[in-house]
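Standup notes
- DV: blocked on the single-chain target, sequence here:
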Amino acid sequence: MRIRIAVVSASLFVAGIAVGYAAQKVGPSLYQGKSKPEAARALIEAARVQAGDGSWERIAIGRIQYLGGARAEGQAVFDDILSKKHEASDEYRIGRVYCEAGEWNKARPLFERYVRENPKDEKEIAAIGAYHLLNGDRATAEDLFARSFKDDSELWATVAAAGAYLGVAPQE
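- DV (later): unblocked, structure below
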């Protein structure tokens, strides 16, 4: 009985490795001749295997789902990441996705936490200020810009602030 369990377990393990390895091999068979949604689904599945447990990688996958019409699936990725121990940068990246989707009300609390936890991150604080300005909150934006420019200013912080005054979102 134990030998059978061991054999079955080993077989399942090897099969899992083979499936995982096959999913990592991205080639034309995943997308050629398929509808755009089918091609996207196949590539997303391959990307999930490639991403493993990486939060930034999983956020990138959630982003294309969220912005590409599979909002519930993308939200599930974000919820899973945020429900476990995660880095503040994960909240920042998810907040950016919400901004891209025009959902400032969902982005703002994530950005506020990021600023509290990373008070010296001038580049991202300026970018968050830019998002505030782009969403009509100039006073908070300029406060964040001032915090960002406290020390020697970083180019990307300056560019984020300048762009916001012209209606341009920070560049990734």
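- Follow-up: The chain has nine helices and no strands.
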